[in-house]
Write a structure and sequence with these properties.
Two copies of one chain form a homodimer. By secondary structure, chain A is of the alpha+beta class. Chain A is built from nine helices and 13 strands. In chain A, the strands form two sheets. An eight-stranded mixed beta sheet of chain A has the order 2-1-3-4-5-6-7-8, sandwiched between helices. The radius of gyration of chain A is 19 Å and the shape is globular.
Chain lengths: 284, 284
């Protein structure tokens, strides 16, 4: 971005909204995370080796390098904004805005070499429940980046070029594709609630980590249901999905910005149908 | 390859082994499959749209286009070899060799937009149980290709360049990462056998389709256990994994070239440990 288009800190603090330069900042964060992470991906993740070298863990190394790189950029480019990262906790800001970072979401996928982990970046309005202004899901190995937000048209940039993102209109659970990462989902009760939905849909798939949320934003799947999430797991995907026309709430239909039990749906009809089964209203 | 290095048909038929040009043929097949498939990937897979256009199904279209493209090349380049494709059945050859093709392995992953499906190519010795001479697993969207065989050093060509493949020495189930595609695995008994292994390992992950076998060859994971496979599901991955130092058999330790119940292991120790639990020898 040119200097002439850069807003003053006052403008940013006043609007509390996305301005064009925030997207450029998010791209720079994701670029920095990619460079920090990729040297560690598929680089000697032998369990035996880890033990032999006193706890060397490439996932932890990559996770930290990614967050350090993003925090350094934010300190330079957005000194008034808060930062909340998975690895290094919260840094207070004065702008009412907070960058929420998961330097590697899906560390078990990363450890296994799958292309399903990602870097999650959100710019959010601070508050009791943070609300995403801008969200980004980046998959460094594929070289694929999904993003969108308030006033930021949702797009994917990837191996096949650039495309707009839009969730799809699948209206019935019977036609829906549902993803979650682990079959057990969470607690026993959470697993049972998940399976009430899973038993009704056309197809259930597992193991995609944050990539599942990107596929929902891209109109490829219809539902993602997970439990036990943190704010940094959900705010980045939430920003992208909402910009693409989808809905992300907790299992009670309330705001999902603090994580916990999360349901992401392609549209209101599917969201309503999933919530009913998650809450088991039919059996009471 | 230059014309001067191309063997005569007689040489090929006599050795029944891999010669350098077979690898070039396999690369050309995978290139053709990529070109045929990618226009269909993430291109309007709306369920509602499918019905509206009388059964239009992008997965089926891509599957067929991929196999047609590969068969056309084989008819030209290897007219004496047999061809066995998932979509179009068996074409007899006279050379004692057969190209075994799965034009898209993981159609449900493809349908969902995940980067876990692949094109599987094997050159095998024909027989009651085909044995792979050369195997290839290609992921067109990532642009990543795993291959190896008898006299073909195993390699991956991907977003980060080229690297040799080698399975890893994890010796104990307690340190192993196990993958399968569906949590139910197969029949109820097959699911129970799988869970005897799953309960012992460090980490179980799902949903990777054929990509799991590639990760095993790359030394990222230790075990893949599946059931209900066909020859075209297993021969390509088997060629790569064997070249990388791994072992692929059925659950009884016999040849896996006809599919069925398949266990792929990074090394002999893990393979033995997994077979014992799959067969439940301990409880008899």
């Amino acid at each position: 971005m040119s200097d002439t288009t850069e807003p003053t800190d006052d403008q940013t603090a006043t609007t509390g909204q996305n301005d064009p330069d925030d997207l450029a900042v998010a791209h720079r964060l994701a670029d920095a995370a990619r460079s920090a992470i990729l040297p560690w991906f598929r680089a000697g993740t032998l369990v035996a080796d880890n033990k032999a070298t006193q706890g060397f863990d490439p996932v932890t190394e990559a996770d930290r390098a990614s967050e350090v790189a993003m925090r350094a950029l934010l300190a330079e480019l957005r000194p008034d904004d808060g930062v909340w990262g998975e690895e290094m906790g919260q840094t207070e800001g004065t702008s009412g805005r907070i960058w929420v970072l998961d330097p590697i979401d899906g560390t078990r996928g990363f450890l296994s070499g799958t292309p399903t982990w990602g870097v999650l970046i959100a710019l959010a309005r601070a508050g009791a429940v943070p609300e995403p202004i801008l969200g980004m899901v980046d998959q460094p190995y594929i070289g694929e980046r999904f993003f969108g937000g308030i006033d930021v048209p949702p797009e994917v940039h990837g191996p096949l070029g650039r495309a707009a993102l839009s969730t799809r209109p699948t209206a019935r659970l019977e036609d829906a594709i549902l993803f979650t990462t682990f079959p057990e989902v969470g607690t026993k009760a959470e697993g049972q609630a998940f399976r009430r939905v899973a038993d009704r849909v056309r197809l259930v798939r597992y193991g995609m980590d944050c990539y599942a949320y990107a596929l929902l934003a891209a109109g490829q799947i219809d539902l993602v249901i997970e439990a036990g999430l943190y704010a940094y797991d959900v705010l980045g995907p939430m920003g992208v999905i909402q910009a693409a026309g989808g809905i992300v709430t907790d299992w009670q239909g309330g705001p999902a910005g603090n994580g916990g039990q999360v349901v992401a749906a392609a549209n209101v009809e599917l969201h309503r149908a999933a919530l009913e089964l998650l809450q088991d209203r039919t059996s009471h």
